[in-house]
Every structure is written in C-alpha cells, then in structure tokens.
C-alpha cells in the first residue's frame, strides 16, 4: 500500500503521461489490481478523478486463452457491468464477438465515462 504522497506521485505522473500522448487528462481512476485504501481514494479525488472499480474481471492479464476471456466477459450477465479487459492480442481476438454477444442481447456496450455520465 502506498502512502497518500506515493499515490499522488503515481496518479500525477500517469496523468501527465496520458496527457502527453492523448492531449487530455484522465478523469477516471481504476486502482491497479483493485487495490486501494483511503489514501488512494483521497489522492485520486484531490487530483480531480473519480475512482471506479470493475464488477467483472476477465483475468486476461494472466490467462492468455481467448475462449476463456470470452466466457468470463459474457457468462451470466444482464447489463450494467464494468468488465475489466486489457489490450492484449488474445483479448482483441474475441472483442468483436463479445460486443456482438451484448448487442444480440440488446445491451449496448459503452465507455465507463458514458456509463457514469462523465
């Protein structure tokens, strides 16, 4: 666990990097690994960010099996889920199928910002 100052350093440095690449500062913060404490939440808030967590984890960072990623992203879902996926080749292979699955169920995939109205 990082201290408040350690959290601020990581959040600010990452925000600057995102800005240098994308031209915008992030406004949403997902704690790495979902690991956070009060200092983490305060550091994000003090730097203008809303903290978000996911409700479903595909564990695609560990399990490099596209069919497993698909199953974890689609099994027993009804909408309103925040699904954690990483930019990996095996996730990309099934991303279109995951989106199609939801569209076929009349569930519209949106960004986290769109879901939260920010």
UniProtKB/TrEMBL annotation:
Q: Which residues cross the membrane?
A: none
Q: Which GO terms describe its cellular component?
A: membrane
User: What Gene Ontology terms describe what this protein does at the molecular function level?
Assistant: hydrolase activity, acting on carbon-nitrogen (but not peptide) bonds
Domain NodB homology: from-to ranges: 1-110
Biological process terms in GO annotation: carbohydrate metabolic process
Pfam families, per database record: Polysacc_deac_1
InterPro entries membership = Glyco_hydro/deAcase_b/a-brl, NODB_dom, Polysacc_deacetylase_ArnD
| SUPFAM superfamilies per the UniProt record, alphabetical | Glycoside hydrolase/deacetylase
What PANTHER family does the record point to? Answer: CHITOOLIGOSACCHARIDE DEACETYLASE (PTHR10587:SF80), GLYCOSYL TRANSFERASE-RELATED (PTHR10587)
Q: List the protein's name.
A: NodB homology domain-containing protein
Source organism of this protein record = Candidatus Fimimonas gallinarum
């Amino acid at each position: 666990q990082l201290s408040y100052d350690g959290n601020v350093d990581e959040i600010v440095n990452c925000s600057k990097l995102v800005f240098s690449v994308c031209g915008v500062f992030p406004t949403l913060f997902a704690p790495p690994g979902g690991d956070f404490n009060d200092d983490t939440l305060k550091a994000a808030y003090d730097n203008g960010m809303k903290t978000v967590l996911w409700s479903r984890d595909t564990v695609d960072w560990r399990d490099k099996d596209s069919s497993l990623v698909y199953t974890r992203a689609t099994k027993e879902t009804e909408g309103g889920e925040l699904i954690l996926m990483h930019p990996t080749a095996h996730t990309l292979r099934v991303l279109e199928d995951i989106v199609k699955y939801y569209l076929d169920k009349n569930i519209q995939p949106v960004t986290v910002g769109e879901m939260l109205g920010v």
